[in-house]
Amino acid sequence: MIRIAGLKKSFQDGDQRHDVLCGVDLDIAAGDFVALVGRSGSGKSTLLHCLAGIECADAGTIHIEEVEITSLDEAARTRLRRDRIGIVFQFFHLLPGLTVLENVELPAQLRGDRSTELRARAEALLEEVQLGERKLHFPDRLSGGEQQRVAIARALINDPALILADEPTGNLDAETADAILDLFRRIREKHGVTILMVTHSAAAAAVATRTARLVEGIIEGATPPQVIEGTDEGEGADEIAEAVDEAIDEPPEEGAGEEAEEAETPSTSDTPGGVRASARATELLNHAATGTEDATVPEDSEKDS
Ligand SMILES: Nc1ncnc2c1ncn2[C@@H]1O[C@H](COP(=O)(O)OP(=O)(O)O)[C@@H](O)[C@H]1O
Ligand SMILES: [Mg+2]
Question: Would you say the pTM of this structure is higher than 0.85?
Answer without folding.
Answer: no
